[in-house]
């Protein structure tokens, strides 16, 4: 069975240790990459601020924000469909 060739889709994964590292994740999302961010290494207030900034950027590009687990989120541009299995 031959499967049709597809384009590669890069995923940017970040585990920031400071809030300043979020800027690279924001830039990647603006460039239409899927971005997975694990905020476990940030203080709770900074983690919330980072999640809010990422969600705002995702909204600005008409993308989605998806909670994956404890302090881990995935942000996708509008050309990526996320289907969570039940």
Automatic annotation (TrEMBL):
<comment type="function">
    <text>Cell division protein that is part of the divisome complex and is recruited early to the Z-ring. Probably stimulates Z-ring formation, perhaps through the cross-linking of FtsZ protofilaments. Its function overlaps with FtsA.</text>
</comment>
<dbReference type="Pfam" id="PF04472">
    <property type="entry name" value="SepF"/>
</dbReference>
<dbReference type="InterPro" id="IPR023052">
    <property type="entry name" value="Cell_div_SepF"/>
</dbReference>
<dbReference type="GO" id="GO:0000917">
    <property type="term" value="P:division septum assembly"/>
</dbReference>
<keyword id="KW-0131">Cell cycle</keyword>
<keyword id="KW-0717">Septation</keyword>
<dbReference type="InterPro" id="IPR038594">
    <property type="entry name" value="SepF-like_sf"/>
</dbReference>
<protein>
    <recommendedName>
        <fullName>Cell division protein SepF</fullName>
    </recommendedName>
</protein>
<keyword id="KW-0132">Cell division</keyword>
<dbReference type="InterPro" id="IPR007561">
    <property type="entry name" value="Cell_div_SepF/SepF-rel"/>
</dbReference>
């Amino acid at each position: 069975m031959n499967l049709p060739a597809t384009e590669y889709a890069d995923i940017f994964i970040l585990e920031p240790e400071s809030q300043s590292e979020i800027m690279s994740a924001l830039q990647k999302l603006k460039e239409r990459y899927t971005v997975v961010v694990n905020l476990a290494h940030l203080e709770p207030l900074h983690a919330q601020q980072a999640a809010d900034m990422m969600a705002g950027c995702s909204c600005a590009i008409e993308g989605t924000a998806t909670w994956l687990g404890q302090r881990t989120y995935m942000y996708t541009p509008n050309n990526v469909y996320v289907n969570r299995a039940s």
